[in-house]
Amino acid sequence: MGKLYGKTAVVTGGSSGIGLATARRFAREGATVFIMGRRQAHLDAAVAVIGGNVHAVQGDVAKLADLDRLYEAVAAGGHRVDVLFANAGAAIVGPLGAITEDDFDAIIDVNMRGTLFTVQKALPLFNDQGSIVMTGSIAGVKGRAGRSVYAASKAALRSFARTWATDLKDRGIRVNLISPGPTETAALASASEAMREALAAPILRGRLRQPDEIADAVLFLASRDSTFVNATELFADGGYAQV
């Protein structure tokens, strides 16, 4: 019997990369999985890859009406939420002096506002003793050039984990943050070999991570294997931000 057998899990940004790998892992562990993504074609492909009991809802976490449709779909199927992986994110690179208002809004609307309302709108459907996991980043603790808004948005999620875990303690709902480093996703598909080597150089394992490796860590935080892990940030970064 899988670690999430009989549970219902919601994954935003679930049509590619870490979100897709995690949704697939949740399904293999016995969960009914609802995924949300912006592009219908990618969602359709993800459903075929995930298999199992999976449902897809097209939408953007920055649009509150789309989040309403997501949770309406969960409720319409007679489900409640046991696990929420708030994974959808946006990244725009730009040095101080070149940051535009549109760039700022695009990052904050998805990474902070979108995450907040993804979690808040799930609460009426959330079972007590459930688990919320958010996708952070090593950018939240590093000072890499050109990433000030993105890094600040991810650092904010660390604060969310602390405060929301306190807000939800009486319901036994745990809130944690998973923070990967550079990972083999579609975002790196067009990267040059030199860039890939530069990204891998600070990682103690000497290579980029695979999405499935991050999914393993998310499953740990989502399941009863981590019942005493709460309000924390788990770095799945191969040591990148630690040494």
- Compute the CA-based radius of gyration: 17 Å
**N-to-C SSE string, H for helix and E for strand:** EHEHEHEHEHEHHE
CATH class: Alpha Beta
Helicity level? 40-55%
Main sheet attributes: strand count, strand direction, barrel closure: 7 strands, parallel
Query: What is the general shape?
Result: globular
Number of strands: 7
> What portion of residues belong to β-strands?
15-25%
Beginning-to-end CA distance, first to last residue:
38 Å
**Which architecture would the CATH scheme give at its second level?**
3-Layer(aba) Sandwich
Remind me, CATH topology? Rossmann fold
Strand arrangement, largest sheet?
A: 3-2-1-4-5-6-7
Structural category: alpha/beta
Enumerate how many helices there are, as a single number.
Answer: 7
Task: Give the total of domains.
Answer: 1
Q: For the residues shown, what is the average pLDDT?
A: 93
Low-confidence stretches: none
CATH homologous superfamily descriptor: NAD(P)-binding Rossmann-like Domain
